[in-house]
DNA sequence: ACTTTTGCACTGACCAGTCAGTTCAAAGAT
DNA sequence: ATCTTTGAACTGACTGGTCAGTGCAAAAGT
C-alpha cells in the first residue's frame, strides 16, 4: 500500500510550492504552471491530484490549519501537565504560535490575507478553520475564568480573537519589518502585554 | 476652473469602487472593467485618471492610510489636551482605530491582506505607509516610558506593532464573525487587555 | 497489471491597456 | 446676445497576450 506514499509525496511538494507562491503573489496572480514548475512536476500531475486550482488551495488551507491548531493544543496541554497555571498555558500557546509562524511564514501570511474576504469560494472553509483555531484559545480562557484565575468580566470570544490576532500580526510584522529581533524578544513583548505589565492596571477612566 | 473638481469627483468614485471590489476579491481577481462599471464610468476614464491598475491601487492606499493615521494622531492629541494619561491616549487611539475600521472596513481588510506580501510592486509604498501608522503608536509609547508612566522594560517597536495588530485583527474579526457585538464591547475587551486586567500581573515564569 | 507521472499541443474565456472619436462647458470673437 | 473654437474629460470597441483546464499516448514506478 505504498502506492499512496508516492502520491502523498507529490501532493506535499505541490502544497509547498503553492503556499510560497500564493503567499507572495496572491491566489489569482499565481498560475498553475508556476506551481507545477516550482514543485518540479508536470502540469498534468497537478490535475491528476487535484480537481482544480481552488480545490488545491482549499486542501492546502485545511492541511495547514490542522498543523497550527494541533500545535497550539499540544502546547496548552503540556503546560497543564507540568502543573502550570492557565495564564502559563496562554503564554505557552503564544510561544507555540510564534514558533509555528517562524517555521511556516508563508502559510500564515496567506491565511491572514484570505481570512476576512467575503464572496470567495473558500470563505466557508476558512470560517470553519478559523473557529477551530480560536476555539483552542477560548477553551483555555474559559477554564481560567471558571477556576477563578481570570476575572469574570473578561469577554471570552472577543479576547480570544484579539489574542490570536495579536500573535499573528506581531509575528508577521516581526518577519517583514523587524527581522533582526529574536523570537524571544517578540515572545517577551507579547508576554508583557498578556500579563498586564504594559497598561499598569489603572482603573478604566470614562474616556474623553 | 472647476474642471479639476470634476476630475476629483471621478477619482473619488473610482477609489470607492476599487476599495470594495479589491477587498472582496483581491487585487488580481478584480478587473478594471468591474471597477469602471461599479463607479459608473467608462473603462477609458480609469486610464485617463490613472496610469495603470496598480497605480490606481497605490494611490488608493496612500489616500486611505492618510485618513487612518490622521484619525489616530487626532485621538491621541485630544486625549492629551483633556489632561488624560498616556495610557488614556493609547485607549483613545484604540477606540479611534475601531471607529475607523467600522467606517471603512473594506480599506482595512485590503490593507491587512496586502501588507505582508513580498515581491509586489507596491511593497515599498506599503512599507512607508505602515511606518506612518505604527509610528503614531510608538510615539505615545515612548512618551509614556519617558514620563515614567510605563515601565522601561517595554520594547517600544514590538509592542506598538502588536497593539496595532491586535486592534486591526480584533476589529476585522468582529465584523466578519461576531457582527452582533457592539463597538463598545470590542473596545472594552481590548481595553482590558491593554490595561492589564487579563493576565493578572503574575511574574513571568520561565516557561515549560 | 496497475497506478502515477510526463510532455505537449490545444482551446476558449478573460482581461489590461489602447486609441480614434464624442461631449460639453467655458473662453473668446463678432 | 449669439456663434465659434478649444481642450480637458470621457467613451467603448478592439487587440494582443495570458491562463485554467483538457486530451492523450508514451514512459516510469511499484
From TrEMBL, chains A, B:
Native species: Streptomyces endophyticus
UniProt name for this protein: TetR/AcrR family transcriptional regulator
Alphabetically ordered keywords of this record: DNA-binding, Transcription, Transcription regulation
PROSITE patterns from the UniProt entry: HTH_TETR_2 (PS50977)
Pfam families in alphabetical order: TetR_C_24, TetR_N
SUPFAM superfamilies, per the entry: Homeodomain-like, Tetracyclin repressor-like, C-terminal domain
Keyword Thylakoid: no
Domain HTH tetR-type, residue spans: 8-68
The entry's DNA-binding region: 31-50
Amino acid at each position: 500500500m505504498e502506492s499512496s506514499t508516492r502520491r502523498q509525496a507529490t501532493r506535499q511538494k505541490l502544497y509547498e510550492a503553492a503556499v510560497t507562491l500564493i503567499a507572495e503573489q496572491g491566489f489569482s496572480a499565481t498560475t498553475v504552471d508556476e506551481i507545477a514548475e516550482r514543485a518540479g512536476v508536470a502540469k498534468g500531475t497537478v490535475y491528476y491530484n487535484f480537481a482544480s486550482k481552488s480545490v488545491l488551495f482549499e486542501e492546502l488551507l485545511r492541511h495547514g490549519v490542522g498543523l497550527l491548531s494541533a500545535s497550539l493544543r499540544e502546547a496548552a496541554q503540556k503546560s497543564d501537565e507540568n502543573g502550570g497555571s492557565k495564564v502559563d498555558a496562554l503564554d505557552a500557546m503564544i510561544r507555540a504560535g510564534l514558533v509555528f509562524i517562524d517555521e511556516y511564514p508563508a502559510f500564515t501570511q496567506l491565511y491572514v490575507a484570505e481570512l476576512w474576504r467575503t464572496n470567495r469560494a473558500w470563505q466557508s472553509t476558512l470560517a470553519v478553520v478559523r473557529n477551530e483555531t480560536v476555539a483552542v484559545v477560548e477553551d483555555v480562557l474559559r477554564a481560567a475564568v471558571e477556576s477563578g484565575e481570570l476575572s469574570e468580566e473578561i469577554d471570552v470570544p472577543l479576547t480570544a480573537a484579539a489574542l490570536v490576532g495579536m500573535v499573528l500580526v506581531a509575528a508577521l510584522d516581526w518577519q517583514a519589518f523587524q527581522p533582526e529581533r529574536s523570537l524571544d524578544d517578540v515572545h517577551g513583548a507579547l508576554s508583557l502585554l498578556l500579563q498586564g505589565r504594559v497598561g499598569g492596571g489603572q482603573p478604566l477612566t470614562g474616556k474623553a
